[in-house]
Amino acid sequence: MATLGVKYFEVTIGGEDQWGLVFSYPEEASQTFKLKAPVLFDATSGEIEIAVDTGFHFGLALEAASGTTGTLIDVLISTSIQVVAGTLSDAGATVITAVTDVGREYSYILSTVTGETAKTVVDQADTTTPSCLIIALDPRDPTGDNNGRVLFMWNPDELYTTTT
């Protein structure tokens, strides 16, 4: 059994440049989101902000926050037909992938693995806000390894949530 490096979320069907809409939104003040992090749209300010690990989100940031209010950030709008690959975790920590994860619904969280805390991972420990519908284990990673990836689709009930 090997321990693999934590990977960023990636849309796997068609590639991110072909599978979804990308729009630029101004960044809200004091943001620290990282590359491929889930973000929310603030309907009051018209800006994007980090989506905490509640499961609700609007899209994936295609670049890290600049730290400067109003900077335009490209966002891949999430849809329920995208197939996304993400590292499986247990409350952000390393976990072994297993076929029993297929068909389950999990949330997402920032990784707690040393050196990997900027990356968002699928959270096996949180089934209360199921934003990730697991459809398969990622064939690029051996089953039974730590930090293996799963393929998932976004739960449509957890999409397009805004803050006010």
What distinguishing features does this structure have?
five-stranded mixed β-barrel, single chain, mainly beta, 35% strand, 2 domains, globular, 164 residues, six-stranded mixed beta sheet
The description of the largest β-sheet is:
6 strands, mixed
Low-pLDDT regions: none
Q: What's the shape?
A: globular
Tell me the span between the first and last alpha carbons.
46 Å
Mean pLDDT: 85
- In total, the number of strands is 13
Number of helices: 0
How much strand content do the residues show?
A: 35-45%
Q: Which radius of gyration do the C-alpha atoms yield? A: 15 Å
Helix and strand element order: EEEEEEEEEEEEE
Structural notes for this entry:
The chain is mostly beta strands and 164 residues long. It has two domains: 57 residues, no CATH class; 78 residues, no CATH class. The strands form two sheets. Strands 2, 3, 4, 5, 6 and 13 form a six-stranded mixed sheet that branches. It has a five-stranded mixed barrel with strand order 7-10-9-11-12. The protein starts with 9 loop residues before the first strand and ends with a strand.
How are the secondary structure elements laid out?
Elements: E1 10-11, E2 22-26, E3 38-42, E4 47-50, E5 59-61, E6 72-77, E7 84-90, E8 93-94, E9 105-110, E10 120-123, E11 132-137, E12 149-154, E13 162-163
Parallel strand pairs: 3-13, 7-10
Antiparallel strand pairs: 1-7, 2-6, 3-4, 3-5, 5-6, 7-8, 7-12, 9-10, 9-11, 11-12
What's the short version?
The chain is an all-beta fold.
